[in-house]
Each structure stands twice: as structure tokens, then as C-alpha cells.
Amino acid sequence: MAHIVIVGNGIAGVSTARNIRKISDDRISIISSETSPFYARTALKHVYLKEVLFEHTHPYEDWFWKKNDIELLQDHVIEIKPKSNTLLLAHLGAVQYDKLVLATGSTSVKLNIPGSEFNRIQSLYSKNDLDLLEINTATNHCKNAVVVGGGLIGFQMVEMLLSRSIQVTFIVRENKLLEYLLSEDESNMLFKHLEKYGVDVKLNTEIKEFFDDGNGCVGSVLTNHDELIPCDFVGVCIGVKPNINFLKNSGIESRRGILVDDYLLTNIPNIYAAGACVEIISDRNNKGVIIAQWQSGKQMGSCLAQTLSGHPKVFVQGNTHLLTSFLKLTYQKYGTVSSDLSLPSQEEHFYWKCENEELSLRIAFDTQSNKIMGISVIGLKLRSDLVLNWIKKKKTLKYALTHLSDALYLGEFAVTYTEEIIRAYNKMYNGSLKAKTFKWKRVLKLSNKYID
Amino acid sequence: MKKNLKTYGFVLLLLGVLHFTSMPFTGNYTPTLNIIENAIKEQGIQDSVFSQVLFTEFSKNSNYSTSSLTQLIRDALQETNRHYISKQKWNRVIEVNPNYLAFSIGKKSTTSYVSKYSIFMGFLSYGIAILGAILILIHPWINLQTFEKIKAGSFAYAISNKGWNALALTAYLLFFYSIVYLKPQYAINWTIPLDSLSRLLNGSVASHWFVLGFVFSSVMSVMSIRSFYKYKNNRYQKLRIGVALVVQWIFAFIGSELLLRLQMPHWDIKTPFPLEFNIILEENVNLLIQGGSLGNILLVWGILLTLIVTPLMVYFYGKRWICSWLCGYGGLSATLGDPFKHHSNYSLISWKAERWILYSVLLFTITSTAATLYTYITGIDSLLGLKTETLQWSYGLFIGAFFSGIIGVGFYPVLGSRIWCRFGCPLGAYMGIVQRFASRFRISVNSVQCISCGNCSVHCEMGIDVRSYAQRDQNIVRASCVGCGICEDVCPKGVLKLEMGPYAQQ
Questions:
Q1: At A246, is the secondary structure helix, strand, or coil?
Q2: Local structure of residue B254 (DSSP, 8 states)
Q3: Nearest residue of A to residue B465, measured between CA atoms
């Protein structure tokens, strides 16, 4: 019976532990210096919005860990000694392991400009950050806030601050929102959506300096357009980076993240790593990939559990899709949909936007073969396994449009707009397509979930 | 004017509720011998000793309050029974609920201020309370904000987070339900303003049950304004709440009163038997059988509805066709109960407790039914040593009054809005078994999208740990799911969807 020690109780670490327990009875310990037990980091927004309480963010009840014989240790790792297979912990001292899994996640990237040491400037990643945010945005002093960084966490932060009736200025470096994800049209739609909530969005803007209010707290920010924006709080959401500082002098190789091969193995034979802290390199000379997503952490965990239990398994990034929502507006993307079509490529887009509502559909397809490469939607929801199979099985644009009702995953009685979308296509390409009605038979055939 | 709507509303609501609350304590009665005689007869008592005692007691005084009236009846009853016990005439001992007798006597002999100005007093209680609540709730509809708002969740407000006002509301609901179910004589002043409406519907004056029906339906209607606003972007919610509302007024409130007028049992004809337990009581079955063609049609419909229509509908649509679309409890939980639905506990232990309690109630229902039918057919008054009458009486008190009324609705603000549906409803238990094992309905999970945030589990009013299924990518097929669609509404990723289709998983 081997002793597997997992450092970090985020989704990657916990997923590893759970999946090992399904196959073997090795001794499993999870060490974490963060709040124990495991909570859903993605739910922090909902805790701040008071939609759930913090205790509700525990995906497993307290008896779960005992029942599955998973040991939870709240402690801090000071040093890893691979030669003697030992971990040095702050309180418990030395801990022996047979196999070690590093799943330490990420930390927020900080802005390195004058004044960033002032109070009430913070990012959002952990429970500690959330507690700090509650103090920093207490209603008696916080009226105006600046959020820096137009990524997913930035949007979350904006939504959170709005719920406390705080006036938000949203500062985005790029010339559109979520530049790596959205095309101009979608970015504009989101821009208008933010304006509806009274958010002041400043594109093409960066912060040069923070100024204090005389009490050591942030009082205003200076942008690169020399505009001075007064504020009581600044949320810095410019991204995350792997949390690997504790690896120093351990002999475990790292660049941006912990370097691992396709089996998630580091350069030391019994030390593995999973989740957002890894940089996967198939070829030592190339730049590796870092994937900081909940679902990838879950998948890496279940893959690594196989390897650790003696069934080596290569990690393949399973999903090429992203689902999220921006201030109650849902966004979904499947496959490849380029955000910039000005570069020469084989990719062409069909784009439809609803006139009265915030709804849009974008289908990327191959110019020559008409096969679809990806779909993205705002305000609509799609049946994910079916759409991914469409892309995998290379369905054509015409097929996708006529069979759209199969793919829509809207609530009952919702307006579907399938007819409008077809009409838009027919007008644009002078076609004569007709929408097909929903058929369970086709859905069952094409979605993994129902394939026996 | 428009801006202050909310303030005016609060003032009106407060005044209306205050007046309504004072009404039980301002009863005033001057019973005559004639009235007493009639009231005793109505309660099915033919006892000269008892009437004699009552007559002499009543002649001592001419004016009574509700409590002195009740006390007097209780004393008379005790004296009569003591008389019989001393003479060892056990079979003459009178078993009657003094509260109900007080209601009959009081209702006919009331001289309170409410009876003098009944319509006006009705306006000053029911009227302004309803008006005030409407003003408060239409406020967001007409005072449009410059910017849209991100609203904080349920845990941000004291009323929906077990704060002082939630406790006060609980106390008030318990006060109201206790009077209606246990001390109806205190509801007499509440019934008076509704007399004319009651006469219009069922031909006689309003009873305390009529008050309950009217208040229940009114609260549901008023609170639906809030729900329609909250779910203005969700057509499923709007439709089901709308249907529940219409059905509550037409079938549950007006329909069953009209049946009463036609000499039929008081029955909400859309509700299958296990929930409408009264319908199999001997007198009601007799009414149906002897009630000519209408009675027979109703009898056949009742049997068909319970044995064929219900399981078939559950097979196709899940039990939600009743629980979330037609049932009054469902309607009330989607309106009055909406701010409290997240109080339902989703731990594994509560699920265990749920199954034990729910199926015990179902067993109780089945036993009482069997005993009732056995007695009806054979004329023997007990089954396996259990007295039929005792079974019926305890079922009515513990399940009907305490569980479904006092606990089920009274504890909304602290225990959640579906306590009765989850732990007690025998109809729900019956349909749940069909739903679990043979139904096309489920909550489906969009593959590998769940981020375990917990919104679904927290907001499920039936306390289903939806997340534990969603994070394993497993469709939710559960006996208790009432298909309210809240999990679908709160899921930030759009993972969940109520769906009917061929089942492939599980």
C-alpha cells in the first residue's frame, strides 16, 4: 500500500484523490494551506452575491472524506526533498511519501506599477481574497471602484461590485472585450450590455500609477491617457500564473509552470503534477501549454489517478469548449472560432444577431469544404456533447443550421429563433434551407451521453 | 407619488394586517335559545340534558366574548358528561369539539362591529392589506431604473435569511393557521366580510375553511406579482405560475364551493385521491353515489384520475404536472414561498429522513383508506384492531391540520417552502414512485460543464443535492423532484434542463 501525498486541495488535487480511491486502496493524504475541506473556487462569486453561503461551496459533505479514507492535512509545505522522498511541513514536520502529486494551482498576477502597495488594491482568487474583498468594499466607504483587466475574472469582479451598488469603471488594455475569445460584433454586444448596467468601460487603456487618499488606501488611478480616475477600490484581474514559488531548490524543473510530460510526470520519477500549476511539454524545445480551467483540472486529476494506480494514461485535453456568463448573459464556445478573421486563413464565419434581444450565433466553417470548425453563442445554450460530435464528425454548415433545434438546450417554452436564423442564412447566401424540427432519434445518435 | 408607492403600500399593508390581527379578539355574541338549539343540532347532538344545561347557563348573561362563549360551552359539556359518568351511562357521554360548537353558535349570534359594517370592515382588513401588498410589489414594474441592477441573492436579506422579520412572519402564520384549524371560533369575525361571496358560491355563509381558501388564494395571487417580476425572462416559470394561479381560483376555490352548492362533497376535482383524503369518508362517498348522474360522473372521474390519469401523466411529464402546475401547495411555494426555498436542507441525512417520514405517511394513508373502505363495505367499525374512526380522526388532525397546514405552511420562512410536499404529501409519494421508475421526465445535465458552485443544491426546494449528480455528469431522476425548474434557472453555466425523452442513462 503506497502513500500518495497530494499538495493542494483544488479541483485537480481532489479529483486525483477521488479517482485513485475508486481503483485502489492506497493511503491518500491531501495537504493544503488554504481553507479545508475542498471548496468550489468558481463559486466565490456566488458567495459574494449572497446567492449561496460559503459552506455551500463544499461539493462533498464532511463525511465524504472519512468514508473514502482521504486524509486532509491543513499545513504549509516548506520544502520538498526528492532524494529522501520527504516533505517538510510547517507544523507537522517531515512527511514521507511514495508518490507525490503537486496540484498547487495558480496565484494572481500583480500589477507592477508605482503605488501598488496601497490598501484596497487586490485581486480575486482564493477564499482569503474574498474575505479581503468583503472588507475592502464595505458599503460605508466604497462608492466607486476600478476593475483592471478584461478577462473572465474581471467580468466576475464587475458583476460582484455592481451587486453592492458600487459604480464601476472597467479598464481593458485591448481594443475589445475578451480579445482572445470574441470578435468585434460580440465584443460590441457585451460593451452595450455593460453600459446597460451603468459600467463605464474604457478600452485601449492601461493604468500607469496609483495615488493614495492620504490614509494609505488607494484614492485614484492614472491611466496611460493621463486621465485621473478617483476610486475607493481597485480590482486587479489581469490573469493568473502557476503557483510554483515553493519549488525553489527542490530539483523539480519548471519554467512558467511545473514541467510535465504527457503522463503529467515531472523530471523526478515519483513526482507528478496536475492542474493549473503545470506546463505540459511534449517536446522539450517548444513552449509548453498551461491550462487554468476547472474542467481541465478535473480531467487531469482523473487521468493522473489512472497512472498512479498502475495504468499509465496519456493526458489529452478533452474539451475545446468554454461556457461562461457575463452579468447574466451566457456565452458558449465549442471548437475553434477565431476572434480575428483579418488574418489569412481557411476559416469563414456565419454570424447571426437577434434584433431585439441580446442573442447571437456564430458558426466557423471551412471556406472550401463548408465543414464546421466551431460554434459560439451568446444568450443561447447548446447541447454540448452533440455540438462537439458535429464538429468531430465534420458536419457541414447547412447541416448545422437546418438541425439547430437538435442542438439548442434552452428551457422549455423558450423562443428558439431557428426560423429567423435560417432566414438570415437564406438571405445572405441566396439559399433555400428549411429548419428541421427536433428529433430525439438524431440527438441520441449523435450525443455521447446516450450512446449505449 | 410614483416614487413613494412602496411607503404607501407598507402603511396600508401594516394597517390592514393590524386590523385583521385584532379581529379575532373583538368577537361579541348574544345567543338566543333558538340559535343554540339549531347549532347543537348542526353538530349532530340530540341530548336534552346538554341543551338544558346550556340554556340555563346562557340565560344568566346576554353578552359574550369569544373566550367566555367557549368557556361556557366547555363548562356545560363537562357538567353534562360528569352527570352521565356519575350515572355510569357511558354511551351517553358527548364527544364534541367545544371549539367547533362555539363557532356554530357564535357565527349565528354575532353582534360585533364587524357584523354591523361587514363590507366596510372587510375593506379595512382584507381590502387594504391586499391593496398595500400590491402597491409594494408593483413598485419595480412601474418605477424603472436608469440602469439595470445585479440583485444580491436570497442570503442578503433578513427576511429570506431567517432574520427577525422571518421569525415574526413564522409566528404570524402559525397564529393564523392555529386559529383556522384548531380554534375556529376566533375566526368568526374573519368570516363575516366573506359571507356574501360565500353565499354567491355555495349558498350559505362563510366558514373558517372559506377564510382559509380565500386568504390562501389571495396571498398566492398577490405574491405572484413578485414572482412574475423575478422570473420575467423565464417563460417556464411564468407559465407554470400563471396556470397554478388560474387553477387555484377556478378549481380549488370556486369549483369546490360550487360542488358544495350542488350537494356534492367539497372537492377540488383536479386533485387525485391521496391528497384529497376527505373524499373517501363515508358521508362523501354516499353523497357521490346517491348524487344522481353528477355524483356518479364525479365518482368515476375520481377513480380514473387517481388510478389511470395520474400515473400516465407522470410517465409522460413527471409529477410536476400536478406539483408545480396545478397543486395549490406548488402555487403557494412558487409565490409566497419563493424567498424561502433555499432553506430546504440537502444533506444526505435529510434525504434519509425524508424517505422514512414520507413513506410512513403514505402507509398511514393506505391504512386509513383500507379501514375506511372496509368499514364502508362490511359495516364493521375496525380493521385489524384499529378503529376506523380513530384512524380517520388522527389522520385529519396530525396529517391534515398539523403537517400540511401548521408545519407545512407556517414554517415557510425557516424550513423552506416545500416541507409538506417533501416530507408529507402522500400524493407526491405515490407519483414519486412512478417518476423514479417509469417516467420520461428527468433533469438532464449538459456534459462536463458543471463547476460545482452549489447554486442548484441550495435553491432546490425539495432538498435534492442536484450538484452531486451534475458534477458526475449524471441525469437527475429522483422520486422527489417536482420539476419546478429553479435549478435550471439558477445554474450560471446553463448545465441543467428539465427534459422529457427516452431514458438512456442510469
A1: helix
A2: I
A3: A59
**Environment class of residue B101 by beta-carbon count within 10 Å: exposed (0-12), middle (13-18) or buried (19+)?**
buried
Question: Terminus-to-terminus CA distance in chain B, angstroms?
Answer: 58
Write out the DSSP string of A339-388. S-TTS--SEEEEEEE-SSSS-EEEEEEETTT-BEEEEEEES--B-HHHHH
Is A59 in contact with B467 (Cβ distance < 8 A)?
yes
Pairwise CA distance, residues B327 & B337, whole Å: 14
Note the ipTM here.
0.92
Other C-beta atoms closer than 10 Å to the C-beta of A282 total: 10
Question: Distance (Å, rounded) from C-alpha B146 to C-alpha A130?
Answer: 29
Q: Do A154 and A235 meet the contact criterion of CB atoms below 8 Å apart? A: yes
* Region label for A14, one of left (φ > 0), alpha (ψ between -120 and 50) or beta (otherwise): alpha
Q: Looking at the complex, does the CB of residue A241 fall below 8 Å from at least one CB of chain B?
A: no
Kindly determine whether residue B155 and residue A327, on different chains, have CB atoms separated by under 8 Å.
Answer: no
- Cβ A330–B494 below 8 Å, yes or no? yes
Residues in chain B closer than 8 A to A381 (CB atoms)? 446, 494
d(CA B453, nearest CA chain A) in Å: 4
Residues A307/A24, Cβ–Cβ less than 8 Å: no
Cell for B182? 384548531
Nearest to A151 by CA among A221, A213, A238: A238
Distances (CA, A) of B420 to A432, B211, B406: 55, 21, 10
Residues in A closer than 8 angstroms to B148, CB to CB, are: 196-198
Question: Which H/E stretch holds residue A329?
Answer: strand A329-335
Cα A199 from chain centroid? 23
Q: Which of A243, A236, A246, A237 has its CA nearest to residue A292?
A: A243
Bridge partners (DSSP) of residue A280 are A260, A289
Mapped onto helix, strand or coil, the DSSP state of residue A221 is strand
Q: Which residue has the cell 362533497?
A: B265
Which one, of A15, A12, A65, A79, lies nearest residue A36 by Cα?
A65
Interface contact flag, B454 A59, Cβ < 8 Å: yes
Q: Is the peptide bond before A37 cis (omega within 30 degrees of 0)?
A: yes
Residues 6 or more apart whose CB falls under 8 angstroms from that of B330 comprise B244, B322, B323, B324, B421, B482, B484
Rounded Cα–Cα distance for residues B239 and B234 (Å): 9
Q: How far apart are CA A226 and CA A232, in angstroms?
A: 19
Residue A109 grid coordinates: 498576477
Per-residue pLDDT of chain A (452 residues; tens, 9 = 90+): 899 999 999 999 999 999 999 999 999 999 998 877 899 988 999 999 999 999 999 999 989 999 999 999 999 999 999 999 999 999 999 999 999 999 999 999 999 999 999 999 999 999 999 999 999 998 778 999 999 998 889 999 999 999 999 999 999 999 999 988 899 999 999 999 999 999 999 999 999 999 998 889 999 999 999 999 999 999 999 999 999 988 888 889 999 999 999 999 999 999 999 999 999 987 777 788 888 888 889 999 999 999 999 899 999 876 678 888 888 899 999 998 988 888 778 899 999 999 888 999 999 999 999 999 999 999 999 998 899 899 989 999 999 999 999 999 999 999 989 999 999 999 999 989 999 999 988 888 887 665 43
Going by C-alpha positions, the residue among A266, A240, A249 that lies closest to residue A81 is: A249
Distance between CA A272 and CA A263 in Å, rounded? 8
The Cα-based distances of A341 to A175, A352, B289 in angstroms read 15, 16, 77
User: What stretches of A33-91 adopt beta strand conformation (E)?
Assistant: 70-74, 77-81, 86-89
CA distance A413 to chain B (A): 6
The Cα B251–Cα A208 span in angstroms is 68
In the block, which residue shows the cell 509548453?
A: A288
